[in-house]
Write a structure and sequence with these properties.
The structure is a single chain. With 320 residues, the protein is of the alpha+beta class. The chain is built from nine helices and 16 strands. It has two domains: 141 residues, D-amino Acid Aminotransferase, Chain A, domain 1 (2-Layer Sandwich); 159 residues, D-amino Acid Aminotransferase, subunit A, domain 2 (D-amino Acid Aminotransferase, Chain A, domain 2), CATH 3.20.10. Strands 1, 2, 3, 4, 5, 6, 7 and 16 form an eight-stranded antiparallel beta sheet that branches. Strands 8, 9, 10, 11, 12, 13, 14 and 15 form an eight-stranded mixed beta sheet that branches. Bound molecules: ligand PDG. The site of ligand PDG has 16 residues, from α7 and β13.
Length: 320
């Protein structure tokens, strides 16, 4: 990866610079019931249905080198999720954007993980009618999270296709609504760890690939980049990957990816906002392709991070 060392050095310099800042919010800032509080002190009210029933949706954009990356794509997805589960937006899009910028400003973080959570709120006393609640907004900004640590991104990680758990059916929980009903993923990560790997890939009941615990999955075969077209979250990182692939002259397939095809892949990687492009070099104990991070993954990795400086995809934060 050509840009790996320069990207990493610049990132580490920003982290070191941040470590010298002081103030109540440098470790993170949360927005809870109309107030900005240090992230570690933020609390959830017990009777919020988000907590009691996981009746919520959320979205996770990120800030990289002082810029929000594809924030409008995340806000679009959040609005679609809210509509699908019949929740009213708790604040307007402009207000939300304002809160998200203010949260970053308070922390002074240049690289951040940003979580926006909308819950159904709470039932009116004496009722259980989900139509009569006021939705509640929570948000927080904390230092950037690497779902796959940067060190591991150079060598690649070890994944398994789960045998003991499938992805919850689309007919039960719509995976395009970003949700925290993670029971299947939690079983998947335990199975992966039990089998000496770190990354579970969950199949659906038809033997097609879905996704994993917070990431989409992409495979490369010859000159085609393939990723499941249904039964998964429509990831913003996945969208960027497909755009990069098309711009590089590769073919793309957004459709069913049978599990069997994975064992024949030249390259495999996972992708998410919190970690970017995460190469997988071992699958079910066997090397993927040559067992090294492949050239397509590498090129997409480089381009993905380069795009974080592109003014058309980013929103610069004014820290003053
Ligand atoms: N699939 C699932 C189930 C996800 O939760 C996510 C996002 C993705 C795919 C990738 O979507 P995008 O490219 O838009 O980020 N997962 C982040 C991972 C961070 C974490 O804390 O695990 C999330 O759930 O917040």
């Amino acid at each position: 990866m050509q840009t790996y060392s320069t990207m990493r050095a610049a990132y580490e310099a920003r982290v070191a610079e941040h470590a010298r800042r002081t103030g109540p919010f440098v470790g993170g800032c949360a927005w809870v019931r109309g107030e900005y509080v240090p992230a570690e002190e933020a609390q959830v009210p017990l009777f919020d249905l988000g907590f009691l029933r996981s009746d919520l949706t959320y979205d996770v954009p990120a800030v990289w080198d002082g810029r929000y990356f594809r924030l409008e794509d995340h806000l679009d997805r959040l609005e679609r999720s809210l509509a699908k589960i019949r929740m009213a937006p708790p604040v307007s899009r402009d207000e939300l954007r304002g809160i998200l910028v203010e949260l970053v400003r308070k922390t002074q973080l240049r690289d951040a993980y940003v979580d926006i959570i909308v819950t159904r709120g709470r039932f009116k006393p004496g009722t259980r009618d989900p139509r009569n609640t006021e939705t509640a907004l929570y948000a927080f900004v904390i230092p950037y999270i690497w779902v796959m640590p940067l060190d591991q991104q150079q060598a690649g990680g070890s994944a398994i296709v789960t045998r003991n758990v499938r992805r919850i059916p689309v007919s039960a929980v719509d995976p395009t609504v970003k949700n925290l009903q993670w029971g299947d993923f939690t079983r998947g990560i335990f199975e992966a760890l039990d089998r000496g790997a770190n990354w579970p890939f969950l199949p659906d009941a038809d033997g097609n690939l879905t996704e994993g615990i917070g990431y989409n999955i992409v495979m490369v075969k010859d000159d085609t980049v393939m990723t499941p077209g249904r039964g998964v979250l429509e990831g913003v990182t996945r969208k960027t990957v497909l755009e990069i692939a098309e711009a590089s002259g590769l073919k793309t397939h957004l459709g069913d990816v049978p599990i069997g095809g994975l064992y024949d892949a030249d390259e495999i990687f996972m992708c998410t906002t919190a970690g970017g492009i995460m190469p997988i070099t071992t699958l079910d104990g066997q090397p993927v392709g040559g067992g090294q991070v492949g050239p397509v993954t590498s090129a997409i990795w480089d381009r993905y991070w380069a795009l974080h400086a592109d003014p058309t995809l980013t929103m610069q934060i004014d820290y003053e």
